[in-house]
Design brief:
163 residues; Rossmann fold; 6 helices; single chain; alpha/beta
Length: 163
């Protein structure tokens, strides 16, 4: 069984994340969406909320692709999480050159820690390349319309946070 791990904070999950989940589902038999518990980032949504949002939004992708999709919170090293879930590949989404520079360093460190786990980069579709959770939260906080960037349920959750 080919198991892939797609890690992130998903605060909140966006159409860009869902694009990567959909496309990664074609590459693996089981996709584990690793939701990082990163207290330094001070997420807007609780871990429970982020898990629920990702599960709700990925259920239709799992049904459509036949790929098993599991949401798995983690707080340890990414490479240890990959080992924990039996992943042979870590899937990362790229939006721009700046993403690549950071990811390039991460791949080098992860390869040094465990060379048996590969990393695969998927470029976000052009229409999703500008979407970043941080920017979505800023737009929502300032009263802007985020419906182009997130699913309706996520927009509702953002509206609930920012009134």
């Amino acid at each position: 069984m080919r198991i892939g791990l797609y890690p992130g904070t998903f605060d909140p999950v966006t159409h860009g994340h869902l694009d990567i989940i959909r496309r990664a589902s074609a590459l693996v038999d089981r996709l584990v969406i690793g939701i990082a518990i990163n207290r330094d980032k001070k997420p807007l949504f609780s871990l429970e909320d982020r898990v629920a949002m990702v599960e709700a939004e990925s259920n239709s992708i799992a049904a459509a692709t036949g790929t098993e999709i599991v949401v798995h919170p983690f707080e340890n090293l990414l490479i240890d999480c990959a080992r924990d879930v039996g992943a042979g590949v870590i899937i990362r989404g790229l939006r721009a050159v700046a993403d690549f520079e950071y990811e390039f360093q991460m791949v080098g460190m992860n390869r040094a820690l465990d060379s048996s786990i590969e990393t695969v980069f998927l470029m976000a579709e052009a229409r999703h390349q500008a979407i970043a959770s941080k920017l979505v939260k800023e737009i929502a906080r300032l009263g802007g319309d985020v419906s182009k960037f997130v699913p309706p349920a996520v927009k509702t959750a953002l509206d609930g946070k920012f009134g």
